[in-house]
């Protein structure tokens, strides 16, 4: 197994750093999956992380000027590494003004992602700063756990309101309750509600619009077309998990949407020109 990548463009480096920082706010640990064309950051929905799952996809050519990898074999040309995103984020933050940054899979006292940055220097000699980020190699027998999640058979799909507005609302609600009900319909309306013995608060959003998924989810379209446009699909979630998603968001998406499977799961999607992030939050009783 070999992996080596190099970033020269400062904008690409900073964008990559923001993506890693976003992921570090969502999970303490995840799997970094390397293929010849893409990088994936994956969190599978296990009970240990509260059932939350994540899938982040980056096209390597949009970030790296050089990208070379050899997987475990010619047949399985992939590398799966368990990483702590916070450690990788810290390493990248310290080298944001670098002339170039190399990321390489190395073997030190343990497998590492070595981040080596050439920093600007007034003298003729270059300064190189190196960070070794420990990783664990995921055996191929476990790869099946880190495949792209299938699109849920949702009841309602809706565009999200401005994420900053949504975050401000949820920050206030968090002080009143640990749980929040998200509900939406096919008329572009979304409500965020909390109810306790002492207080009931609802924030209404309207005219958000509903994405058209076309043939890719024809089964969903069939269900949606027969659905009353005013009927709400709802799901009750842990408010901290939703807040975590909004607080860490640094991708600045061109589109942000939400699919709701009634009383089952919230599927949040952020789309950027060169990054897509999916986040699944399961319902709580």
Automatic annotation (TrEMBL):
Major localisation: cytoplasm
Xref: SUPFAM superfamilies: DNA clamp
Alphabetized Pfam families for the sequence: Hus1 (PF04005)
Record keywords, A-Z: Cytoplasm, DNA damage, Nucleus
Swiss-Prot/TrEMBL GO biological process terms: double-strand break repair via homologous recombination; meiotic DNA integrity checkpoint signaling; mitotic DNA replication checkpoint signaling; mitotic intra-S DNA damage checkpoint signaling; nucleotide-excision repair; response to radiation; telomere maintenance
Compartment(s) of residence: Cytoplasm, Cytosol; Nucleus
One GO cellular component term: cytosol
Region described as Disordered: 210-230
Regions of compositional bias (Polar residues) in chain numbering: 215-226
Subunit and interaction comment: Component of the toroidal 9-1-1 (RAD9-RAD1-HUS1) complex, composed of RAD9A, RAD1 and HUS1. The 9-1-1 complex associates with LIG1, POLB, FEN1, RAD17, HDAC1, RPA1 and RPA2. The 9-1-1 complex associates with the RAD17-RFC complex. HUS1 interacts with POLB, HDAC1, FEN1, PCNA and RAD9B. HUS1 does not interact with RAD17. Interacts with DNAJC7.
Biological role: Component of the 9-1-1 cell-cycle checkpoint response complex that plays a major role in DNA repair. The 9-1-1 complex is recruited to DNA lesion upon damage by the RAD17-replication factor C (RFC) clamp loader complex. Acts then as a sliding clamp platform on DNA for several proteins involved in long-patch base excision repair (LP-BER).
Family named by the database record: Belongs to the HUS1 family.
Protein name in the entry: Checkpoint protein
Highest classification ranks of the organism: Eukaryota, Metazoa, Chordata, Craniata, Vertebrata
């Amino acid at each position: 197994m070999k992996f080596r990548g190099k970033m020269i463009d400062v904008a690409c480096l900073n964008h990559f750093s923001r993506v890693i920082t976003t992921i570090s706010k969502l999970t303490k640990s995840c799997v970094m999956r390397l293929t010849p064309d893409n990088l994936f950051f994956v969190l599978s929905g296990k009970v240990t992380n509260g059932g939350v799952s994540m899938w982040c996809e980056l096209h390597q050519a949009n970030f790296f000027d050089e990208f070379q990898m050899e997987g475990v074999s010619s047949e399985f040309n992939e590398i799966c590494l368990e990483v702590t995103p916070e450690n990788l984020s810290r390493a990248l933050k310290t080298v944001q003004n670098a002339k170039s940054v190399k990321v390489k899979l190395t073997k030190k006292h343990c497998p590492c992602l070595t981040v080596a940055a050439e920093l600007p220097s007034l003298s003729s000699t270059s300064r190189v700063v190196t960070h070794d980020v420990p990783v664990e190699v995921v055996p191929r027998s476990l790869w099946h756990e880190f495949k792209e999640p299938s699109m849920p058979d949702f009841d309602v799909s809706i565009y999200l309101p401005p994420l900053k507005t949504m975050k401000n609302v949820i920050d206030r609600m968090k002080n009143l309750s640990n749980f929040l009900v998200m509900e939406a319909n096919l008329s572009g309306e979304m409500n965020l509600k909390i109810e306790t013995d002492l207080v009931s608060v609802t924030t209404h959003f309207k005219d958000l619009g509903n994405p058209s998924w076309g043939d890719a989810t024809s089964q969903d379209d069939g269900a949606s077309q027969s659905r009353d446009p005013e009927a709400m699909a709802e799901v009750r979630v842990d408010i901290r998990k939703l807040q975590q998603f909004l607080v860490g968001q640094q991708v600045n998406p061109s589109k942000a949407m939400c699919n709701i499977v009634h009383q089952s799961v919230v599927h949040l999607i952020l789309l950027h020109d060169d990054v897509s992030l999916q986040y699944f939050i399961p319902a709580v009783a």
